[in-house]
Every structure is written in structure tokens, then in C-alpha cells.
Amino acid sequence: MLLKIEVKRHAQGTEYFKPWIEDHEDGCTFHFHWDDISDEGVGVFAELFNQQARRWHPRPPGRPVGPRIPITMERRTVMEHGAAVAVDDRAAYIAYTVRADLISERGAKYITQTQSERSPYWERTPARYQVSCPTV
Questions:
Q1: Which of 26-30, 114-118, 131-135 has the lowest mean pLDDT?
Q2: Over 80: is that where the pLDDT of 136 sits?
Q3: Do the Cβ atoms of 29 and 7 come closer than 8 Å?
Q4: How far apart are CA 17 and CA 49, in angstroms?
Q5: Are strands 56-58 and 122-124 parallel, antiparallel or unpaired?
Q6: Following DSSP, what letter does each residue of 31-98 receive, concatenated?
Q7: CA of 109: how far to CAs of 59, 116, 117, 126, in Å?
Q8: Does 9 have pLDDT greater than 70?
Q9: What distance in Å separates the CA atoms of residue 84 and residue 101, rounded to the nearest whole number?
Q10: pLDDT at 135 > cutoff 90
């Protein structure tokens, strides 16, 4: 089952809260304060986290808890080749490099901290690729 990941930017003027993740039966919602993520960032991070959900899944019941992995997010004013986000996604760590205008320093720090705290309850699945040749 493919998980559905949503990103929500809460209304301007609400009291500040740290980003947090709400679990659902079929996925989760990343909640951000208005000041921590831009409108463009909502779409970019929704796409990013949905792509990542293809490789990471909750550990099945009864499976032992895994290690806590470090997850970092470096913000850059200018990204290579016009990218919005680059990800080095490994079993031992995840390192995001993101365009600085998409997420605040505070938002990046707190959301990666939350992801890292949750990481022992998730597992990375092996990738499988298939390439077809066009018929002549």
C-alpha cells in the first residue's frame, strides 16, 4: 500500500507551534506553522515526502525497533541546476539540501528532529527497478 503524505500550512496569526506529524491509517500529515513554510514549500515538501514514502514504510507489528537515524536539512539560497530539493537518502541517514525560501531554519530543524525521533519505527525497503525496451 502506498502511503499518502500531506503537508499543511496553518493559518497566519495562529500561536506558534513546532512542526509535527499526524498519523493516519493510510499515511500522515506534516503540520507547519505559517512562518515556517512558504506556499511553494507546501507543494514541494508534499511531493518530496510522497516520493520518500515509496522507500520508507512503518515497521510491521512484532518487528524489532530499528536504530534512530540522523536526519538533517541544509538550507541554501541557490541550488544547483535550479533544483528545489536534493536528498541523500540512505538506510543510515537522510540529508536534505533545500532552497532556503521554502522552509525556515526553525522549521527545518524541528521537522527533521521529529522525523529522526520517529525513524526507529520505520524501515527502508530495497529499491526495485524495471526498464522496458520499445518494440521495433
A1: 131-135
A2: no
A3: yes
A4: 21
A5: antiparallel
A6: EE-GGGB-HHHHHHHHHHHHHHTTTEEEPPTTSPP-----EEEEEESS-GGG-SEEEEE-SS-EEEEE
A7: 25, 11, 12, 28
A8: yes
A9: 9
A10: no
